[in-house]
Amino acid sequence: MPRELVLTRKGLEELKAKIEHLQTQRRREVAQRIKEAREFGDISENSEYDDAKNEQAMLEKQIAELEEKLRNARVIDEDEVSTDVVGVGCTVHVKDQKTGKSQKLRIVGSAEADPSQNKISNESPVGKALIGHKRGDVVRVQVPRGPARELKITKIEA
């Protein structure tokens, strides 16, 4: 059974735009490369043609995978996100109990995760640990590298 993909409305729009780009612009570019490679002559010994056909196969595979994600997507309505408990679509303010450092994290589905923008996946160790907890809770998180961290939830926003 395919895995459910959790997306925000913005993530859904970005996924659709990426599929659209690959199906239109990228397909035309690859088709043009194949056409140009055919003009070089005998395609049985034409490395340009083989390379272009391989690129076409990889592109079609990528499109198929993205369409599969789209079919299995569950969109989170950000207007209905609860601020009582941490869930996908929430922005959570946490304070590391050891270092005293505060951080603002947005919980998103795995397809939208971008740690550089403080968007963490609901499937990541920190995301999994925070989900379901309330403001004021101290959550113990076992991170991949180093000792476990204790994070206090100071605020939950939609």
From TrEMBL:
Give the family per the record.
Answer: Belongs to the GreA/GreB family.
Instruction: List the source organism.
Output: Thermoleophilum album
**What are its GO biological-process terms?**
DNA-templated transcription elongation; regulation of DNA-templated transcription elongation
Q: Which InterPro entries match?
A: GreA/GreB_C_sf, TF_GreA/GreB_CS, Tscrpt_elong_fac_GreA, Tscrpt_elong_fac_GreA/B, Tscrpt_elong_fac_GreA/B_C, Tscrpt_elong_fac_GreA/B_fam, Tscrpt_elong_fac_GreA/B_N, Tscrpt_elong_fac_GreA/B_N_sf
Q: Which GO terms describe its molecular function?
A: DNA binding; RNA polymerase binding; translation elongation factor activity
Q: What sections of the sequence does the record tag as coiled-coil?
A: 5-76
Keyword annotations? Coiled coil, DNA-binding, Elongation factor, Protein biosynthesis, Transcription, Transcription regulation
Q: Which PANTHER family match?
A: TRANSCRIPTION ELONGATION FACTOR GREA
How is this protein named in the record?
Transcription elongation factor GreA
Q: Where is the Transcription elongation factor GreA/GreB N-terminal domain?
A: 6-75
Its domain of life reads Bacteria
Q: What does this protein do?
A: Necessary for efficient RNA polymerase transcription elongation past template-encoded arresting sites. The arresting sites in DNA have the property of trapping a certain fraction of elongating RNA polymerases that pass through, resulting in locked ternary complexes. Cleavage of the nascent transcript by cleavage factors such as GreA or GreB allows the resumption of elongation from the new 3'terminus. GreA releases sequences of 2 to 3 nucleotides.
